[in-house]
Amino acid sequence: MGGFINPKEPITFTNRQEPEMPMVTTGLPATEDLIRASKEGKNRGQRCNEQIRVPEVRVVGDNVPEQRVYPIAEAIKMAHDLELDLVEISESAVPPVCKIIDYQKYVYQQKKKAKEMKANASKQELKELRFGPQTDEHDFQFKLNHAKEFLKDGDKVKAFVYFKGRSIVFSEQGEKLLLRFALELEEFGKAEKMPLLEGKRMSMIIAPIKKKVIICQN
Question: 85: Cβ–Cβ under 8 A, 6 or more apart, which residues?
Fold first, then answer.
């Protein structure tokens, strides 16, 4: 009878095919391309020449006819005509700022500068100067001049007041001495922390002031 299934007859299932989804093109590179581009960016450092993929850049420096915004192709051509490189020096600017320089020489100078700074940092010493709670003016000035020379050479200065016996009662006087010492040296160094009393010693460390170095690229 219609509408009833005969249990003796085999049941046949029809394979249902899901409709194919259309492929969507996003215009973005594949994942592998993104990973490769990221690795190249990390290994590359600063972008130069054809690595600078923006429509236009601002070119600065003394070797350009006019410091202004140029189409990227024209900026690269100017650099090639001078047998130099177009190097991006400010990626975050809009548009990015570039200079026409010798890129290999620029990288060499940057590495040399970093190496020198690292070497100077490793040579920094901690010079100690000892005071008494009742140090006289002559001795104070004598040690002050030594501290100035140490700080000029890039070394740190640890000034401390040693309280012998019952002289610990003059701890306040020792603190005033160290604070005056730091004030006299403010042109050459900066105190890393306030005077600290540990046992019979009250100390304070003064670090040299880092000088700003301005590098001009021609």
Answer: 48, 49, 79, 100, 101, 102, 103
DSSP-derived secondary structure for 77-127: HHHHHTT-EEEEEETTSSSPEEEEE-HHHHHHHHHHHHHHHHHHHHT--EE
Query: Residue 58's Cα: distance from chain center in Å?
Result: 24
Over the chain (218 residues), what is each successive 10-residue block's mean pLDDT?
Answer: 52 50 40 41 67 93 88 93 91 91 88 80 81 91 94 92 83 90 93 88 90 46
Q: What is the pTM of this model?
A: 0.42
Instruction: Report which DSSP code applies to 133.
Output: T
CA–CA distance, 105 with 109 (Å, rounded to integer): 6
In one-letter notation, the amino acid at residue 185 is: L
Alpha-carbon distances, residue 131 vs 146, 158, 162, 187 (angstroms): 13, 11, 6, 21
